[in-house]
Specification:
3-stranded parallel beta sheet; DUF3987; alpha/beta; 10 helices; globular; Rossmann fold
């Protein structure tokens, strides 16, 4: 996979090609040697997350990370974390779980993302978007969550739009950092539309946008290679999880379900 940028006539500049398969395997092996910070999760929460994850044959890390992403979105634009005295940060977080097919990502997505959001009176989950549509969604609903069971197409489209000069990465960086004002130009100065001068600049005072979902390791690492060509800090804002996946046999799943029911009771 590689992206072309068409500049002057007859000029096709290639960004980057695929990472060799052996190099990808090496990266995955090294990443899995990094321990997940379960010590940061309080004892009443951790066993509940683990029991629920094992009951549906998925990984507790997947359930936890996506649940945190949903929670950060639901906290809304008025919530902030006070890191230290006079230093506050928005609660927006960007996450990504890397996992191979058949490792339970569909189940994790259902219990962590789809099921909780069904109870909301307003819809916050965004599947497809344009900059204008995303702006209007945030302007009317105050919060948005971009999260899919497979996020490869999202990052591919982000790369494509960036090469077309749309500033997608910078837009998501501003959303992540909770800038006090997000400005969108709705009409150019030469627009003949009535009221164009008044509508030319629109401001979004507050916004809350979180980013989550799942990707297969090999396709994403090739995308990551291309996303890393810019030093705008976009990749630094994404918390990525890659753990060894354990898939249970049918009898083990039934046993885990029994345990989780006893635990919840």
């Amino acid at each position: 996979m590689a992206y072309q940028h068409k500049g002057k006539k007859g000029s096709n500049r290639m960004f980057l090609g695929e990472i060799p398969t052996m190099k990808i395997k090496e990266i995955i092996h090294e990443a899995r040697n990094v321990s997940f910070p379960w010590e940061a999760i309080s004892s009443p929460v951790r066993p509940w997350i683990e029991a629920m994850a094992r009951a549906i044959n998925t990984q507790p890390e997947f359930v936890l990370l996506e649940a945190l992403t949903v929670t950060s979105c639901l906290m809304g634009p008025d919530c902030v974390f006070e890191i230290r005295n006079r230093h506050k940060e928005p609660c927006n977080i960007f996450t990504l779980c890397l996992c191979e097919p058949g490792t339970g990502k569909t189940h994790a997505y259902e219990v962590s993302v789809e099921d909780p959001l069904q109870a909301l009176p307003i819809k916050v989950l965004v599947h497809n978007y344009t900059q204008k549509g995303l702006f209007e969604h945030l302007n009317s609903r105050g919060r948005a969550l971009i999260c899919h069971g497979e996020m490869s197409s999202f990052y591919e489209n982000l790369l494509k739009r960036q090469t077309e000069g749309n500033g997608e990465r910078q837009m998501f960086c501003r959303f992540h950092d909770g800038n006090s004002k997000i400005i969108r130009t709705s009409h150019g100065k030469g627009s003949k539309k009535e009221g164009a001068l008044q509508d030319e600049r629109e401001e979004l005072e507050k916004s809350c946008l979180s980013l989550g979902g799942f990707c297969q390791p090999q396709p994403y690492l090739n995308l990551h290679h291309m996303l890393g060509t810019s030093d705008d800090g976009f990749l630094d804002r994404i918390s990525t999880c890659l753990v060894d996946s354990v898939i249970l046999r049918e009898k083990e799943v039934l046993w885990r379900v029994h345990l989780s029911i006893k635990f919840i009771k």
